[in-house]
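=== RUN LOG ===
request id: a7f3
mode: sequence -> structure
chains: 1
length: 175
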Amino acid sequence: MIWYTALVLAVAGERLAELAVALRNTRWSLARGGTEAGRGHYPAMVALHTALLAGCLAETWLAGRPFLPWFGWTMVAVVAAAQGLRWWCIRTLGHRWNTRVIVVPDLPLVTGGPYRWLRHPNYVAVAAEGLALPLVHGAWTTAVVFTALNAVLMAVRVRCEDRALATVRPAAARP
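=== RESULT ===
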């Protein structure tokens, strides 16, 4: 279980790196006249993602969840793929990527990278990671609860983001 704790802590470290990128990008966006939408749901999102990490560790340690190699290693691969997709989104959006919904005026929608195929690929990464990370070590209760709560939160978030993006100029491809 020590290696699983290290994995969850590594994901927590990755989340802190994301927050640093988001803070830098927030400053960049606001300096260019960006406006934020969806402030009301943001604290719930932060709390849910923090609870995911805590739940992974608590359930595994307190309930003595077993590591099933055939399933656990498959879930590790899903977690790694989710991280790859998330950082592909971050790289593709550049300064526009954020954990908040901020739209900068006069910038076209990005349609390159994973946005070529999916409207909200970062949320696919979040859903995959939120299901797979707890299941790496059998924390099925955390996986189910996070997935259900995340689905509700993502319904709110995607509607908010779609409304904000509807104010953006028509799409233009970005390399």
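=== NOTES ===
The chain has five helices and two strands.
Residues 159 and 173 are 23 Å apart (CA to CA).
=== END ===
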